[in-house]
Amino acid sequence: CEDCGKSLIGECKLHGPLIRAKDRVIPSRARLTLPHYLTLRVLELRAGNQQILGVFAKKVIQKRTQFGPYVGQLSTKLTCYDESRLVLQVLKDGGKYFLDTPNEDCGNWMMFVRLARNQEEQTLVAYQHCGEVYFTTVKPIEPHTELKVWYAADYAKFMEASAVFIKEESDVSPLPLVAKEPVDSWICSSCGSTFATFALLESHQCIHKDRL
Questions:
Q1: Lowest CB count within 10 Å: 93, 115, 123, 176, which one?
Q2: pTM score
Q3: CB under 8 Å to 128, separation ≥6 — which residues?
Q4: Is the CB of residue 67 less than 8 Å from the CB of residue 95?
Q5: What pLDDT, in 10s, does the model give residues 156-207?
């Protein structure tokens, strides 16, 4: 104690405790990477002050907007599992690895995006490209809408998961919410390739245009 000049174990009985000043709380790496037109919202508060977060749009996000790559630790074993988030794996040097995010300093904001339960709420599709995972919007996202993701058709096969089909803004009959094999296929008129969704066909046709 500087007032009485004594070294004490614990608080000074004469002058009382010290006034404790706390460090400023610094946002995690994942929260700092959030784009300015997105925001995090607390959807649920569980035991132990565990927050269930969701990512929401603050302005209109156009269709075919790409986010990524997803940041995580390459691991042969998943150490952090959340049933509301997608399990992601990548192919690296011939091996299959999990993108593990045990805490918010090991990933970016994409770790907060929750999985889509059906075609109506899905706004993003996850896929692998050059050993990285990206999310791309499959339809325009309105303000205050939560971003939710599911696997692209080919990536779903890689992950050994079912495919969620997006209801297109057209007069076609809606596809089932969850199916292992597409009920209807979109056929490319140039090469005859078939695709599970119109979005995949549209992306494929861009390749033909580039070649021409």
A1: 93
A2: 0.68
A3: 90, 91, 134, 155, 158
A4: no
A5: 999 988 776 554 444 333 333 333 333 445 666 667 666 655 556 655 655 5
